[in-house]
Each structure stands twice: as C-alpha cells, then as structure tokens.
Amino acid sequence: MTPLTAGEIMVAEAARQIRDGEKVFVGMRLPLIAFVVAKRTHAPNAIGLFELGMVRDEPAPELLYTMGDPPNVRGATWSARTVDIMGLLARGEVDAGFIGGAEMDRHGDLNTTAIGPDRAHPAVQLPGSGGAADIASLAKRLIVIMPHDKRRLRERVDFVTTPGHGSTPGWRARVGLRGGGPDVLITTLGVFRFPEGRAVLASYHPGASVERVRAETGWELEVVPDVHETETPSEAVLTIVRGYDRDGFWTRRAE
Amino acid sequence: MTPLTAGEIMVAEAARQIRDGEKVFVGMRLPLIAFVVAKRTHAPNAIGLFELGMVRDEPAPELLYTMGDPPNVRGATWSARTVDIMGLLARGEVDAGFIGGAEMDRHGDLNTTAIGPDRAHPAVQLPGSGGAADIASLAKRLIVIMPHDKRRLRERVDFVTTPGHGSTPGWRARVGLRGGGPDVLITTLGVFRFPEGRAVLASYHPGASVERVRAETGWELEVVPDVHETETPSEAVLTIVRGYDRDGFWTRRAE
Amino acid sequence: MTPKVMSMAEAVRRCVPDGASVALGLALEPAIPFALVHELVRARRRDLRLIGPISDMAFDILISAGCVAEIDAAWVGNVSAGLAHGYRRAMEKGIPRRIVVRDHSNLSIGLSLLAGALGSPYIPTRSLLGTDLARANGTFREAPSPFDGTPTLLLPAIEPDVAVLAVQRSDEDGNAQLWGPWGISQEAALASKAVIVVADELVDRSVIRADPNRTVAPAFKVAAVVVQRGACHPSPLQDRYGRDHSFFHAYHDATRSAEGYAAWAKEWILDLPDHEAYLAKLGPRWEALVAQERAR
Amino acid sequence: MTPKVMSMAEAVRRCVPDGASVALGLALEPAIPFALVHELVRARRRDLRLIGPISDMAFDILISAGCVAEIDAAWVGNVSAGLAHGYRRAMEKGIPRRIVVRDHSNLSIGLSLLAGALGSPYIPTRSLLGTDLARANGTFREAPSPFDGTPTLLLPAIEPDVAVLAVQRSDEDGNAQLWGPWGISQEAALASKAVIVVADELVDRSVIRADPNRTVAPAFKVAAVVVQRGACHPSPLQDRYGRDHSFFHAYHDATRSAEGYAAWAKEWILDLPDHEAYLAKLGPRWEALVAQERAR
C-alpha cells in the first residue's frame, strides 16, 4: 500500500472540521481537497465559498491549482464580487474558514507579510494576507494549516498579518474583532486546539510523538490531558484524496 | 396646425440644455423626451443615465411611462445597480441631471416631501425624493422642470428635500455639496437662470409675458436685462416630439 | 435540506410575521412582487416595516390595508399616475393608522442596505448634505471625514428581516436569476436575514450553473422559493411581460377615497383566493402583456 | 467620438505614463492581462503604482523589470508555485530598486476601490482590527463608530489613474463583458479615471445590447480597447482558455536570481515584438489550452 503522507493526514483532519450544512471559506490547496472529502463523506450539504466572489455547492470535478481555475468557476451557483462574499463573512454568516501561514505564535497570530523587525526592510518578504486576515478576523471559526517547523511556530511573530487570539485575554473583543479566531491548527506533525486562546497539542500524527512535536515547536509546548495519536484516515477518505489529487501535487509534494 | 403646448415648449427648452457628448441623468416624463430630441438634433453623442442602474446611448424606440419599462431596458449598454450609477454621480462624472418638483423657492431649494410645518403630520404628503435629492446634490448642473404656479414657486418651501443654492451665499460649498446646483428652471410659463444662486427670469414662453410670470410667481420676480420670449420649437423638433409622444401622454396632458 | 419551494401563502406565513421589516420593490419600477403584496393583505399582516426605493403603488396598497407601521423609502407614489392616495390618507389623517416614515433618497437607501450587506456599520456619502431630508430621517449623522475634515453624511446599515426578490427564474434551492436593472436588489438580499424568491419560472439547477453571474444572492440566504408566473403585474418583468400602465392609472383613480380603496382591494385582492385567480380575472389583458413582450 | 480600438502599444503609450497608478489583475487568479504587463516592460515604464488584490506573477514581473515604485496589494506572489522572487529581491535588497508597499487584505483593497467607485471618502470595516497590517498600511484610521462606539477601521478611497479590464468580449465603444468571478473588477473600473479594456474578442454592438447585465462598466469610462486573443496567458479566461500551471512554475524556477529574471524577460518579453509573437512562441501548448477549455 502507498505510504500515508502528512498531507493526507492533514486533509483528513481538515475535512473533519467541516460540519454538514456549514458555509466554509475553503480557499485552495489542502483545504479545497478537505472540502471534497467532507462533501463526499459526512457533510454532503456543506457549501464552499471562494474569495474571488463565488459559491459552489459541489466541489469542482478535477484538481485545482488556484480557486480561479475554470473548472472551479464552471458549475458555481453564484459568481459575484469579492466584496459581496467578504461582506457575508463580515456579517457573521460564514461558519468556518481555512487559511495557511508562514509563521504563527502560540496565540494563533499569523505572519504572512515579512520576517524581520522592520516591515519596510524585511529579511524575508512574504506574499501578504490575500484574504486570510479577513477570514481570521470575521469567520466564526478559523482552521489554520501549516508545516510544522520550529522556525515557523514561534513564541512571537515579527508581524501580525492575521489576527489570532492575541497575547492577553479578551484581546479580540477588545480590539473589535467579531469572528471566533483560531479554533484548530493542523500541522504536518499534529493537531492543536485553542481552549484558552493558546495552542495546546490535542493529537500527534501517526509516526510523530509528543516529544517530536515539542522539539519542533518554538514555544513551550502545552498538551491536553488525553493527548493521543491523530486518527488515521480511513480507506474511504484516502481513496477520495488520492482519486482527486491523482499526481499528489498538493498532498504528496516534498514537505 | 396643432397648437403648441407648454409641454412641447418645455421639452424643446430642456433639449437645449443637453450638450453633445454629455452624460445626463434623464429620468422620465418630459426630460426623457428632451433626451430623444437632443440625440436626434444637436447632441447625437449624449448618453442617458437612469437611476435604476442603466446607461443608454440611444433613446428607447417608443414612449416610456417609467424608466424601467422593458423598451428602455432592451438595448441598454450597461445594466447594473443603483449605487453603481449613483456612485458615478457622486464621483462628479455626470454633467447634468433633470428633476421635477412640487415646490421650489427662489434659491432652487425643492420640496417633494410634505407640505406644512410638521413633516410627521403634513397638510399634503408628497411622494419624496426618489433620486432627485442625489442628482441635485451631486450633478455638475441641475435642470428643474415644474408647472408654474404661485403656490408652487414660493418664497420659502416647507421642507428642503432637494438642495438648491440655499439662502446664503456659498451655502452649497459650506455644507459640503459638490454638484453645481440648479442652473435652469423650466416652467410652463418661462425659463429661469440662477446667476447669483437666485432664480431670475430669462425668457417667457410664447403666449406668456413677464407680467403673467410675475403674477404667478410666489417671490418678488427678478428679470434679466435682455428678457425675451422663449424660442419657439422648430418644426423639426416638434415633429420629433409629436412622433415620440404620439398620444400626447406627457406633452399634451391637462396642465 | 428542507424543501424551499412553497406557495405564496406558505411563504408569507413562514417568513413574514407581524412586525417584520420587509424590503421589496428593489429593482425600482420593474419586477415589483405584487403577488406577495396582495398575499400580505389577505393574510392581514400588521405593523410591518417597509423598506424600498420607489415602491410604485405597492407600498400604497399595504399602507391602505393597514399592514404598515413604518417606512424607510425614497419615494412612495404611483410613478406614471401621480400621488399615492393611501399614503396621503395615512400621513395626513391617520387613516387607517398613523405610520412612521424615515425619508431616504435612492442613493441613501441603496448605501444603507449596502452597508448591511458589507457588514459595515455605516457608509459615508456627500449626497443630501444640508437638506431637511437628511435631518428629518433621524438615523443619519453628519460628521467631518477623519481624513480631510470635509462634511459627510453617515448612513447607518439597514438589515431587513426579509427581502423579496422577484426574478425571471430560480432553481429549487433558491439560486434566483434576474436580468434587466438590479436597482438595489443585490445589496438588499445580502443585507437581509432571509430572502423570499418569487420566480416567474422554476428551472433545473443546471440552467443556473451554466450562468452563475446572473444569480443575485447565494441560495443559503433564501428561505422560500415561490414559483408564480405574472407575480409582478402590473409592473413589468423583462422578457416576460410588459407594464400594465392603465392598471396603475385605474388604481390611482379608484383609490381617491378610503372607500374607493376598500372596493378596489375587495375586487383585486380579498375576493380572489390567489394570484392565479387574479391573472384569470385579468384575462386577455394579461395574455396581451405577455404576448407583446415575448414578441420583441 | 474618437475611435478607441488600438494596439496594446498604443494603449500603453496613451493611457499609462510613467508614474501612473494602475489597477490590474482585478478578477484575482483568472483574467490577468499579462499581455499589457509585458507591454509595460517593453515600453520601459517607470515609477508605476500598482494596485490589485492577488497579482499572481504579474506584479513580480513588473517589479523585477524596474517599472514599479509603489504597491497597494493584498498579496504578491505566485499562487500555485510559491514566493515571488522579484518582490523579495526588491524588498530585501532593493534590486532593481526600493519600492514602497501599502499592505492590504482582499477585503480592504476591494472596499477602498468601492469607496472610490461610490464617491465616498472612505468605508468602515471590522476586518483587520488590531493587526500590524492595519497599522503598517499607513493610510487606514481606527475610529469608534459614531453610532455605537464599537471599533472600526476606516479605509480611504483609492482612485487609480487607470484600471485594466481583461474580458471575453467588448464592442468598439468599450462596453466590456466579463463572466466568471469579477473579483474587484467593477469597483476598480468605476473608481478609476480611465479604463483600458483588453478583449479576447471584438463583438458587434448588438451583442452587448442583448445582454447589458454582463457589461462591467459603462463605455464612457473606457479610454482604450485592445483586441488581443490570449492576452491573459498564463492565467485563464473562462470559456476561452485554461490556466497554464507549468508556465507559472517555470517562471518561479527561472527567476530565483536577477540574472534568471533577465534571461526569462528577454526570452518571453523583450525579444518578442508583441503578444502574437508570444502566442506563436508558445505554439501547440497555447493551442492545447484553448482546445481544452473550448471542449468543456
């Protein structure tokens, strides 16, 4: 049997975050495949929202490289403007959103703008927010998907592109953010929850361990009492993932 | 020959206000017919804007009762949203707009909301602004078309629905209005200009006179030095008007 | 998913309780959902808050029937015929009841709903500055722009309980497609808690998916889909039927008195069980409006 | 009226002077007018201010060519391939020059252009509150809503000198019709002083008039109409051609160094006289993208 990849475990875990009937900003890459899995398994009535101004109630029939690929536009039920779909997000009508990140701190604050102390003269220039900061500001729940790396999971990020829970209790409410903020972080090694607004390891993926996660995490690791191994994707889920991402472009790429 | 009506004179005069290539909020009733006349005579490149969100570069081929009648929609070049077209107005991109009014004062302030001192308990409830207050606030030039009546052309109106020049110099700039305000008032008896922000009679229609206009005007009439009779519509113009408004629904109705 | 396709009576029963705020007539003169207006009268709805731009005749019917407590509108009248007698009676004499009016312009009502659609608390504009309209509305605020100190009028978001979209076609999920001018339809639908779609025709999902740019709002906003041909008569629906001008004029003439309105309402609403009966009563006149528009 | 149909070179010469602010890539990942981007490089434009949401590869090309002084964008990179090497070089090392960046999100850039389109000085939002992005942008202001005191972020209007609309079809007047997602195309076009239409196909005026709901902006906003098939390659244009994923990946691999970029630009832009030569160079690969999309 083909060995399981971290990408596949992440997709399966991401799919579990989508509940039936929910409206979800599914973005692209792994979350988009997670949407395919969720729709074909436990969440047949989930609805996919795309920030270029689109709604789909069926996933595109083929693998996408961007959410604007023609197969993702063909068969949409609504094709409008970015501010229209983002407006629904701002109104609090979107249940969940998926985003990625280059750097994250333990409070779920994400940096996708620039590494280094001076934004005008960065050590590493990153691409920026796209729609991520909006989704993190405004969606009821946020699911973050990232490679697990000590340099990426830092005690503090250099620049908060995308708001998490902030470093003091009640920060989101105080600054006026209405969305719920990070609920789950899915990495290449494990799954974190944010029970008190801080990332706490809930499970480690097959092949990883609490110790390995601790070694690869840039903050002092907290672990839930019943930490356990992440559920292995079922055969049915793997079949969907591998049938959709046939060449493994998103789920089997070098990590 | 069919006798000339005030409606026909008003349409001809209104048509003269449209310059070639201009973008004009033409509304409905007489101004819409004026747009037809202008397009077929001196302003073939004028463009008609409609507040329901539409642009036409050719008038509808048949008489309209409202600007949303299917013949006015068919053949439009742009059909969008009210805020889109009104946004262009707010940006200062609209050259001129036509509106009507129930009451007007000498400064061009218009009331189409309610007669009487208390808006909540009016003596006469009028329909309201529609888009008129926006057009008067924001268009570069405003042309007002009204029946001439002492009770309608009042020293002061009860309620300013639609801003004119205000009763003190520089009022529009002071309150922050960017459009030019009333430029011309065309009534059933004559044509007024607003050289200093006050209505001054520029011409009286064939069959009327300065004296008759004075008698029918609710403020102390001012008259330009070279006041003269309004130019009679040409045969060509009358042919267009009578060919378009065949039954005289707008141009020959009881006044 | 719960089936959304239902009768007009059912849609009104489920989605428009007494006291609801209802946005309708959103495409301005065309596509006014008169069939729903009539059903609100038959269902004796009370204390509605009506929200809309032009409301050609529709608001006047509801005011005269005593359904209305409040109005946010730019214009209430009869576009080709003149003043709205019912609105006049209510405002001038409190017949059948007093109503509260918040005056708007077409831009201000559109921007207020747009603010609601964007999840923004308000939108600033430079229209209406210095007018009694801006002052009398009572919900607007004048404030200098924090960027350059110039005067602006701040229009707070309006979020109706329900918006009614009358459209040419919809699928059973409520993906409703409208062509011709949209007026303030889209921002009203997006700003509302729920949408009632009144579709001239129910089409297969594949028709919608072949052209999603025509869909006004996503189906998850839609609580009810009513399939009713001719639902906008006497207003027009592009490519389906023309405007019945003389019906507007006849209403204007008939409703000069409260008694006149009562007789009109009895004849055209209360004595008829539903909109199919109304179309049957119109008879060949209705067929002509369809034939004329289809022939173009 | 002055004829508006002209070559890409002429459109760039007339409508995009050095120092102009240019909004492009407005439909996000699809319909990016790469043919115009290449012409800006050939014309050696300098000190441009680029405005856009995602800017997949297009902004990186212009930055690397030294055309750009300032950027207002939500994201600058290569969507399916990764970081933008040219953007990194400019920001990290000032190669070929330093640029000023005002960070946005997709919503903030859309709302800023919408404010411009509405003639409103700004639009408030509740997104981005408390972030370094909001602070670092430098043009936003945080302020309590005057209605309820809750925090809001005020986004000032952006009014580009020119917006570029890449569309499936246009008439000679510039009534341009786009389908598929519009992203922030419409608000950018309405907010701009002028629009350049890059149309895959020139159609008769009657085609436009038969379906005016598809027109993005009225023709009077349009200063130039460039008819150029394949103008968006390697990005897709719905129903016309698919996305050339491997072209994006090849650019990513080729431009890791400034020399690599120079070689890439020589091969794909500077050594080619125009976009037809570019399509000819692509050869059967281009035909396949068309055939694949037309077959669907």
Give keywords.
heterotetramer, A: 255 residues, alpha/beta, Glutaconate Coenzyme A-transferase, 10-stranded mixed beta sheet, two-stranded antiparallel sheet, 14 strands, C: 296 residues, 2 domains, 8-stranded mixed beta sheet, 20% strand
Q: Could you spell the SSE succession of chain A in H and E letters?
A: HEHEEHEHEEEEEHEHEEEHEH
Over the alpha carbons, how many angstroms does the gyration radius of chain C reach?
19 Å
Strand content of chain A: 15-25%
| Net shape of chain A | globular
Question: Helical amount among residues of chain A, as a percent range?
Answer: 25-40%
Specify the CATH homologous superfamily of the largest domain in chain C. Answer: Glutaconate Coenzyme A-transferase
Number of helices of chain A: 8
Instruction: Write down the overall mean pLDDT of chain A.
Output: 95
Task: Describe what you observe in this structure.
The complex is a heterotetramer, with two copies of chain A (255 residues) and two copies of chain C (296 residues). Chain A has 255 residues and is an alpha/beta fold. Chain A is built from eight helices and 14 strands. Chain A has helices at 6-16, 29-40, 70-73, 82-90, 132-138, 171-175, 210-215, 235-244; strands spanning 23-25, 47-50, 54-56, 78-79, 96-100, 103-104, 110-111, 114-115, 124-125, 141-146, 182-187, 190-193, 200-204, 223-229. In chain C, strands 1, 2, 3, 4, 8, 9, 10 and 11 form an eight-stranded mixed β-sheet that branches. In chain C, strands 5-7-6 form a three-stranded antiparallel β-sheet, with helices on one face. Chain C has twelve helices and eleven strands. The interface between A and D is large, with 57 and 64 residues.
